[in-house]
Amino acid sequence: MGSEPGRPARAAGRAPEVRPVRDSPLTTLDTYDLRFSGWGGHPVAAWLLLPSQAEEPLPTVITYLGYSGGRGLVTDHLLYASAGYAHLVVDSRGQGHDTPDPHPDAGPHWVHGYMTRGIEDPHAHYYRRLVTDCVLAVDAARSIPHVDPDRIVVQGASQGGGLAVAVAGLAGDGIAGALPDVPFLCHVRRGAETATEGPYTEIVDYLRRHAPHAAERAFSTLAHFDGVHFARRATAPALFSAGLMDPVCPPSTVLAAYQNYAGEKDIREWPFADHAGGRGATAVEHLRWLRLRGLAPTER
Fold this sequence. Notes:
Layout: H1 7-12, E1 17-20, E2 29-37, E3 43-51, E4 58-64, H2 79-82, E5 86-90, H3 126-142, E6 147-157, H4 159-170, E7 177-181, H5 188-194, H6 200-210, H7 215-223, H8 227-231, E8 238-243, H9 251-260, E9 265-270, H10 280-292
Parallel strand pairs: 4-5, 4-6, 6-7, 7-8, 8-9
Antiparallel strand pairs: 1-2, 2-3, 3-5
């Protein structure tokens, strides 16, 4: 990824565009369609949700999404704004309906999904573009008047958790905290060796067709986007979570990123949980942790 993955994209970018969602059924939240420049200057869609009539700059949560999911409907994302935060929900290029990936060339040997798109060259891999989008979402958030630029937290589960770890490692002092839940894209080789459900199994399918000669090149490419390496660069405090019976992101992969995370950190381990982790209890842990870190909104 390099030390400044967003630099070329920043040069190609434009100021974010924010438009009210005119037909929103929500009465206690103000909702906006946000478009900002991502990798290559490509437009990336996001939702922005704010408590109604908010005036002062707010602590802000940026959410990255799970694998193969887009930003969906604005009504899918009510928690953080309802708790008084500004909330930015970032679409995943090519995975949602609102953000296309203008560089779909996956190389000659990819299999289904996104893990093997460009797997023979880290410069061409899909996650180079998506991780850059996610870093630039922090830039976009900082330009919004209702966002307190000193209290931005990145959050996500599964793929979104892995992206939160990546941004924590790449954004430096640009964020105040990270909330990666059951993060994907961490210790990728271990995930391919032990996960019994996708998306790591996409790598296995690829290697069954092209192994043994393709394995080292594939994992060399994927190492550029591995959360273990990003975690070593992270300085913001973080709260991780892991499901100890997770077949998608095995707990050993999550713990590898957690143990290598350089910033202040804590983790919630859910002993009998699958990939859903702590389910609704996770949100309670998030809000409590944010308040203890001084990242909660001022009570009205």
